[in-house]
Design a protein that fits this description.
168 residues, mainly alpha, 74% helix
Length: 168
Amino acid sequence: TLKSFFLALVILALVNSRTRLHSLVGVITISLGYYGVKGGAFMVATGGAYTIFGPEDSMIADNNHLATALVLMLPLVNYLRMETEKRWIRWMLLGVMVLSGFAVLGSYSRGGFLALAGLSFLFWWRSKSKVVSLVFVIALGSMAAAFMPDKFFDRLNTIETAAEDSSF
């Protein structure tokens, strides 16, 4: 824990300009985005038949931790997407966001699902074009629901009895 706090203090001391902030956000996006793209592509390829976990022996090895990290990364990716001038990079970052959202669903994490739903609502709420963003969120949600097997929805139905589950 002390090493983590020390690293956070070093990062705060080093990130003292806009360029360094963009670099930090870029490194976080690349680091977590890799697992989001990999997990999302795996989820789409297998139809959501398997639970997605993070890398072994890491802080995000558990499916719930991976889902939380990916949901927390999505606003950072969106920030980079909005700040970049190159169109192809914007499209690539949008793809990272979509596949990372699929990876969150493929983790079968109930908390990740609720966080993704809340983030989708905030995305819609803060959007300048509410109709377009609503159609985008509904279309992605419908596509994800079509991919997911019944065991995903069975897992979501246990949110009401989550206190009885050992993973809660």
